[in-house]
Amino acid sequence: MKQHIHCIVSDCHYWQQGNMCTANEILVTTDEFGSNHPEEVDAHMAAELIPQPAGDCMTTCCKSYIPQDSPYTTLDGVKKME
Ligand code: SF4
Predict the structure, then answer these.
(1) Ligand 1 centroid to 30 CA: how many Å?
(2) Residues near ligand 1 (Cβ within 6 A)
(3) Which of 29, 40, 63, 74 could be 33's S-S partner, Cβ–Cβ 3.0 to 4.6 Å?
(4) pLDDT for res 77
C-alpha cells in the first residue's frame, strides 16, 4: 500500500517542502496517549499498542513529530537519545 502523508507541521524533522511527511512510518495517537508516554514510544511499537477511541479529530496527534533541532537521533519510527 503506497500512501502519501500530507502535513503542515514545518518544524518537524520529517517535514518537507510541499507539506509532505518523509517518514516511512508514523504513529498517530490520542492526545492523552501522546502526553502520557515517552518519546521512545513510536511507530516501531505500533503492533504492541492497545487501540483506543479519540472521539474527534481535535484530540489526536502525530506521536512521530520530532523537532528539527532535537537531541534525539531519528530512524523512521524510532527515537533514541544521542
Ligand atoms: S512525522 Fe508527523 S508531524 Fe512530522 S512531518 Fe510527519 S506527519 Fe508531520
Answers:
(1) 15
(2) 5, 7, 9, 12, 14-15, 21, 23, 26, 62, 64-65
(3) 29
(4) 61
State the Cα–Cα distance between residues 51 and 78, nearest whole angstrom: 19
Tens digit of pLDDT for each residue in 2-39? 789 999 999 999 999 999 999 989 999 999 999 999 98
With beta carbons less than 8 A apart as the criterion, state whether 49 and 82 touch: no
Buried b (16+ CB within 10 A) or exposed e, 48-76: eeeeeeeeeeeeebbbbbbeeebeeeeee
47-72 pLDDT, tens digit per residue, is 999 999 999 999 999 999 998 888 77
**Closest atom of ligand 1 relative to the 20 alpha carbon:** 5
Its pTM stands at: 0.88
- Protein residue with least CA distance to atom 8, ligand 1: 7
Amino acid at 25: E
